[in-house]
């Protein structure tokens, strides 16, 4: 009995020492929390201080590398706090699973020690202990990332459906973009009760769109890509990728490319290259607004304004500023070159720099919006049709008489007459704004989707005037397309996605031009215009020859019985 008492006392003493250690651990943990809070506060306060100081230096054109004593101390403090936080949380995150497993191991060892050392004196007590009651697993709110990583997919789906875990935070909490998209896909199915079985998940790099191309993805849409060509443009041959679901479009454009090719090719010229952004500002009076208008349009002020604007990017170069008034409101249209990027973000940053710069001389200026629709983006507008936006391109070709007859199956006279009555007179009767063409938007949209452009900018990019006339004593056909606002880029946005990047590579314009900034995007704009020329030539020939309905009935009709298709 004494042996049993001694062993029990030893176990109780050991448990007491462990309890004491746990108290010490809790005290050290409290001090650790305080240390973390201090370094967190130091990190963010110093970061705010340095950003504020550097912003003032940018506004006053002071070199950033010239540091004061306080700024040097701030930089040192920022680096020190960053190193501490990264070391602490990095090691804690890595050791978290091991610490948890060790804790479980210690608990199991404690139980086994008590059972082993207590012997028979506790055997009767152990037999009388009540059985464990199983508890249903409940997903708590605001789950930390390590806990979420250990959960099964079905548990995470239930948490998303119940709102415990926000759907938009899955990527950051899981650390796996593909898994986040799959879980969100299942959650949408459960919430809506609709099947998404036809929406593919596999075969897409979801990491490539994180934070830039698409939020809360649940899959991707498949659009077939066809090729037209070769398009012979300025002495070079291009195989043009077109992503579309409209039958006959690729085939028709391909026929136009053939007619251009056998006639010696087409040529294109870029007239202008400049992206625009037009903020709207307001003053207390129209007279005061006019003072800013005159200031902005004064050539003597352009150098200081351009210097401020150009600091936003090494590719952004301010070209001109035009301002117009509506009462006491002033609309300022900035135009700048943007290298090989389409450039909306680039020009917006430059405009913000100028607005901040103007506040010192015009403190009563109220900035209503960074965009006042005088730009004009994603809308059919006369300002784009007249002044241009993006790349302004003219493309032309002379189609020989025998090619018109053999390839296009029509006469030169019929094409010229149809173009005048349809594309020019008919569009004028409809009050068209830049719509003096047969179907330029078809080709523009297809190439934009294939090459990762912004499909919404098809609106202004498709503004086009198609002109035809008989030349060489009426035997040959001269055709041209004038497109004042083709908005394209070869870097940024969707151009970096694998499929779209492959299509840009097919055209030889992938990425930024190393020799001449902006050369690749300008070349892409000419390819778009040349493809539109081919599409216009073929469709107009089909309409003039009465083949449009027949060809669409043959190549643009599904063979499936639509009465058997269920939603």
Describe it.
Its main location: endoplasmic reticulum. Keywords: Endoplasmic reticulum, Glycoprotein, Isoprene biosynthesis, Membrane, NADP, Oxidoreductase, Transmembrane, Transmembrane helix. GO terms for molecular function: hydroxymethylglutaryl-CoA reductase (NADPH) activity. Among the domains are: 43-60 and 71-78, no CATH class; 151-209, no CATH class; 225-273 and 392-555, 3-hydroxy-3-methylglutaryl-coenzyme A Reductase, Chain A, domain 2 (Alpha-Beta Complex); 279-369, Alpha-Beta Plaits (2-Layer Sandwich), CATH 3.30.70. The chain is built from 19 helices and 11 strands. The protein has helices at residues 2-59, 69-118, 123-128, 145-150, 153-162, 170-174, 177-192, 249-262, 286-297, 302-310, 344-358, 382-387, 401-406, 412-429, 440-451, 458-461, 498-507, 519-544, 548-555; strands at residues 225-233, 236-243, 267-277, 280-282, 317-326, 329-337, 366-369, 390-399, 435-436, 464-471, 476-486. The strands form 2 sheets. Strands 3, 4, 5, 6, 7, 8, 9, 10 and 11 form a 9-stranded mixed sheet that branches. It has a two-stranded antiparallel ribbon with strand order 1-2. Strand 1 (225-233) and strand 2 form a beta hairpin. Helix 1 runs antiparallel to helix 2 (69-118) and helix 8 crosses helix 18. It starts with a helix and ends in a 12-residue tail after the last helix. The model is unreliable at 1-16 and 92-139 (pLDDT under 50).
